[in-house]
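does this look right to u?? adenosine-5'-triphosphate version
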Amino acid sequence: MYINLPDKVKKIIAVIESAGYEAYAVGGCVRDSLLGREPDDWDITTSASPLQIKALFGRTLDTGIKHGTVTVMMGREGFEVTTYRIDGEYEDGRHPKDVTFTPELGEDLKRRDFTINAMAYNDRDGLVDIFGGTTDIEKKIIRCVGSPRERFGEDALRMMRAVRFSAQLGYNIEEGTRTAIKEMTANLKNISAERIQSELVKLLVSPHPDYLRVCYETGITGMILPEFDQCMATEQNNPHHCYTVGEHILHSLTEVDGDKILRLAMLFHDIGKPETKTTDEEGVDHFHGHAAVGEGITKRALQRLKFDNDTLHKVSRIVLYHDYPVAISAAGVRRAINKTGEDIFPYLFDVKRADIAAQSGYHKAEKLDWLEKIRNIYEMVMDNNHCISLHTLAVTGRDLIDAGMKPGREIGGMLDALLDIVLEDPEKNTKETLMDYARALLEEE
Ligand code: ATP
Ligand code: MG
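got this back:
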């Protein structure tokens, strides 16, 4: 087995070896190389201690020196070099209480989560695969190194990592590993929101975002996103739908590109349905107001998972407007852009298309036709730089004050009234025309 190591990695390994220590590329980069993928970064594992590494290289950073990691700088690029270690007891399912350095590569590989992540490589020894990582790649399975229950007991995040890797690679989770997840999900309560968020996002933007189903089946979402479990339990007896809310969400996830905002938007778009469900005399289910309720649930869930404000703001507004009824007219589209915001409106094309694709066939052609018409109008509005917000209105508050209006709340109301005129007819967006309207409106009062 041959892996084409980058020159800088070869160089680092050669320097360490010539000082009498061992060094290997390890973990994700070896896995990705065997899969024919370009690794994101190259991690190196070594028998040398952090101090010995620092003595061997000119420029280093103490990245995680307590845990044995030193970053070696080669030009502008940094490579993490970590001393072989055995992780001690995990204090809180998060940090190893103490790490012990070891002279044995095998001991270091043993602490790693999955067989496909527990291989090392250098040109001298070739591939070191003690736990059957290559076989598991052939079989396309995610399997724990050692006892799955013990491994998940040490670090509960590994359960989410198992599903995430399976979604990234399209692999199954090996039976014993999967059973252990079902037994151990309660331990996720010890894991920080930041670590959970990072794994959830990696799963969502993967080629198989619908593997979130595995998180549901094993009980992971019950711990990290119970709102989604409620969706899985919510039937939709309605001609527009053919799945439970949860299954509809899972299908819709696969219908948008692997973009973080879009995938989160699909995950949450119908999250308000369980709370708003009503059933009429005919037995048909309705979900009036689910978008507005969903906006609130989305904000709370994203806050709990410690998402940044920009993501929280974007995703929750997409949820709020995902079924906004845009009228098929230039004025209707301009009003909708104004309402939803210029940053949000373009997302709605992808979101609505995916939403429709994951519904029943009922009126599907009409729905897609409506969407196409809105898109064409939107492009026309944008190409012509039509005014759709106060930013580009030809009149400002200053203009109104200069014309004798008293500063205060009325100014805002007047600007809104003028914008309303312009949303209806963009031709009227000139200072002259709008000031005439302003004076006329003032006289009316
Ligand atoms: P990616 O970079 O795509 O997240 P990766 O496999 O490189 O995938 P990292 O989180 O960068 O994952 O970790 C590098 C290596 O460290 C992994 O391949 C694995 O061997 C080990 N590792 C990382 N996190 C854990 C963990 N929670 N438990 C055990 N081993 C881990
Ligand atoms: Mg990595």
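Residues 364-383 form the longest helix (20 residues). idk if thats expected tbh
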